[in-house]
Amino acid sequence: MPWTSRSIGTLAFELGILILLSSILSGAPQEKHLSVYSVAANYSLMLVQREGHDYVGLLELLEPLGKVSARAEGSRWRLHYNRVEGEFQVGKTRARVQGHEIELPAKFLEENNRGYVPVSALASMLPRFLGGPVTVHEDSGRLFIGSVATHFTASLAAGTSAKLVFNFTGPVNPNISNEPGSVRLAFTRDPVVAPASPSLTFGSKVIPSATYTESNGTATIAVRTTVPVIASFSNDGRTITIAPSSATTVAQKAPATAAPATPAPSSAPSAPVATQAPPPSASTPVYRHYFAVVDASHGGADYGETLSNTLYEKDITVALARSLRQELESRGITTLVLRDSDANLTLDQRAVFANADHAAIYIALHATSDGPGVRVYTALLPFGEDDRGPFRNWSTAQHASLSLSQTAAAAVAIELQKRQIPVRTLAAALRPLNNLTGAGIAVEVAPEGNNLAQLTAPDYQQLVTSAVATAIAAARSQLGAAP
């Protein structure tokens, strides 16, 4: 029988129905994922289930984080990540990473020349490869490398009972969906973590509560509502506000009236009705002036100092910048972080951004293995290149603000000494300090001893950034007007 367009279409329809029914009847499980969050990249990997365990491809897991290669030698499978070697035996539960024996909770598997390890092994195995802390939320499929977690608070806006404000410690971009009686914020690409209590209540009839959950590589905040609401972003993606939609607000404010009476006919022309211009939309962007600009040095292809086989300066400076921003803003100091991802800016771009914002203080962050403690730098201006004429010399733009920079540096050094952190203040030809038109310092953090792991320790990072923030807050009146 010759094929016709009708018979082909009918066959395709019937085949589709059969596939759908087969899927429903077989109860095909949902695909499982592992979301990975790190300074270098945020990404998602598909998990496979084997022998009652969730497995992830080891090569696929490490590829976005550094240089990796693998080869199979019979039943032996070797992997090199940067300069770290791992050795696995197919079908065995023992592995060796950087000379250390590791007991796997389930057998190592090889399929199509790809090595697979159980997800439950990552917490003990990955720090050997990466040289830093790793946190695994195994049940929900989320993996955090280093101090990258984004925390949040939720509270009703001051003076209202119908506007819920979420403040996050870093920019977020969730998928938002409205459902009857709730709005859901799903974070797949953002390392959002649970608050102290996953269930939050607000004592509002409009927005009574919110619940935090994690599942299949995604964190979700479900906000319960009694009226239709909308979500809006502000503060460079660090604040999300949930509020009743404009239609709901209008409906709530409109007085209940009877059906309007039919007006009596009149031959006189109607008088124009005065109207009031609507208020500006809450989503209208407003320029925000920052008191402090924090700059995580290096980034992208510029690794900065190679602190160890698996640790680069650019990663430490981003973590320090995020910590310092949180410390400054907790003291009421508005703060802009120039580099909050693995991107690179030129030295001129860093100075241009800081100068354009007219910030009261610029703080560059560096990290080094050459300790101990912290060094605080101010600019060392070239000799004989003062401004001539109406234009400011780029290489000596710091000249008029150098005394303010030295004041800030001295305050930071005193505060670090109070916390028993070794500190030195220095002048150096360290760009972009000499290109800044406002106060500017550079803070270079080293371990207090010979243990490089201290640079990645959140408690040490916070000890340093808290001291810097306290000093800047104390010197605020000398640096400029409060933000």
Task: Give structural attributes.
disordered N terminus; Immunoglobulin-like; 483 residues; six-stranded mixed β-sheet; Copper Amine Oxidase, Chain A, domain 1; Aminopeptidase; alpha+beta; 23% helix; 3 domains
Overall, the morphology is flat
Low-pLDDT runs: 1-15, 17-28, 247-288
The total strand number stands at 30
**Binned strand content:** 25-35%
What is the CATH topology of the largest domain? Aminopeptidase
Q: Treating each run of at least 4 consecutive H or I residues as one helix, how many helices?
A: 9
What are the SSEs and their pairings?
Layout: H1 5-26, E1 33-37, E2 42-46, E3 48-50, E4 53-57, H2 58-62, E5 68-73, E6 76-81, E7 84-89, E8 94-97, E9 100-103, E10 109-111, E11 114-118, H3 122-130, E12 134-137, E13 142-145, E14 152-156, E15 164-168, E16 175-179, E17 182-187, E18 199-201, E19 209-215, E20 218-224, E21 229-234, E22 239-244, H4 246-253, E23 292-296, E24 306-308, E25 311-312, H5 313-330, E26 335-337, H6 347-357, E27 361-367, E28 374-379, H7 402-418, E29 423-428, E30 439-445, H8 458-474, H9 476-479
Parallel strand pairs: 1-13, 23-26, 23-27, 27-30, 28-29
Antiparallel strand pairs: 1-2, 3-4, 4-11, 5-6, 6-7, 7-8, 8-9, 10-11, 12-13, 14-15, 15-22, 16-17, 17-20, 18-19, 19-20, 21-22, 24-25, 28-30
Helix pairs in contact: 5-8, 7-8
